[in-house]
Amino acid sequence: MSQTVTVTGMILSAAPIGEYDKRVVILTKEKGKISAFAKGARRQNSPLMGVTSPFSFGEFTLYEGRTSYNIMTANISNYFMELSSDFEGAYYGFYFMEFADYYTKEYNDETQMLKLLYQTLRALSSGKIKRELVRYIFELKALVINGEYPEVFRCGNCGAVDRGVVFSSKNHGLICEECKAIAADGIGVDSSTLYTLQYIVSSTIEKLYTFTVSDEVLSKLRRIMKQYVGLYVDKRFKSLEILEMCLD
Ligand SMILES: [Zn+2]
Fold first, then answer.
1. Contact 170/150 with Cβ under 8 angstroms?
2. For position 213, which CATH number holds?
3. Which of 48, 54, 115, 139 can bridge 41 by disulfide, Cβ–Cβ 3.0-4.6 Å?
4. Distance from the CA of 181 to the center of ligand 1, in angstroms?
């Protein structure tokens, strides 16, 4: 009996293998992150050629072999083509794929991360929100989904909720005016930045990309997220290095 299964997911990465094949990593709703072979996907006329490119989102029918999956057919509902013709947009996209790849596992429930990736690529390709803001929203929400994220509602030291605050990565989030002495790395947080952080942490994924911020708030988010990700995300992302080289 053949073992065929249909999954919904997004291609995170694709690598050439052999002369004409590809090996892809797919983040799926049903099986978490899996890797699969796409036989002949690099041949000119292969129906699997386009469907196995990063960002492709849709249904994949897989043959489950003894040691690996093989893609038989795919029905793609969104290729996010806008990004493929735009170097900077594509590299933001690759960075989100790499970040998601780092935080997801096989046979783990990754529905939330898949949903976040999908909404993030939509925001990225619509161009309505600055890409840099999309980046910080994605990073913070991905950490929230992963379960290790900063406290943004109260002082992490005394629990106070109604005092001026700083953001301290070493203290995992907010530290109030009175406890500030313990936060040497503290970054002053105004009320708009605080509200933005709280909104990102508590909002549903569907409503995440519905706001924009002032340049002041964006520059605060930049400092906060760079400090936090720099301290807790133990990985150098290749696509981010390329992106930052180009943005400089
Ligand atoms: Zn305090």
1. no
2. 1.20.1440.120
3. 48
4. 10
Phi, psi of 129 (to 5 degrees): -115, 140
One digit per residue, pLDDT tens: the chain, 248 residues?
468 999 999 999 999 999 999 999 999 999 999 999 999 999 989 999 989 999 999 999 999 988 889 999 999 999 999 998 889 999 999 999 999 999 999 989 999 999 999 999 999 999 999 999 999 999 999 999 999 999 999 999 999 998 878 999 999 999 999 999 999 999 999 999 999 999 999 999 999 999 999 999 999 999 999 999 999 998 999 999 999 888 77
Q: Does the predicted TM-score (pTM) go above 0.85?
A: yes
> What is the separation, in whole angstroms, between the first and last Cα of the chain?
56
Task: Tell me, yes or no, whether 216 and 100 share the same domain.
Answer: yes
- 45, 79, 113 - which closes a domain: 79
Examine the domain organization and report whether 64 and 87 are in the same domain. Answer: no
CA–centroid distance, residue 160 to ligand 1 (Å): 5
- 231 and 141 part of one domain: yes
The residue range of the domain holding 165 is 83-247
Ligand 1 centre to CA of 145 (Å) is: 26
User: Is residue 178 within 8 Å of residue 158, measured between CB atoms?
Assistant: yes
Ligand 1 centre distance from Cα of residue 200 (Å): 22
Distance 203 CA to ligand 1 centre (A): 25
Query: How long a stretch of residues is the chain?
Result: 248
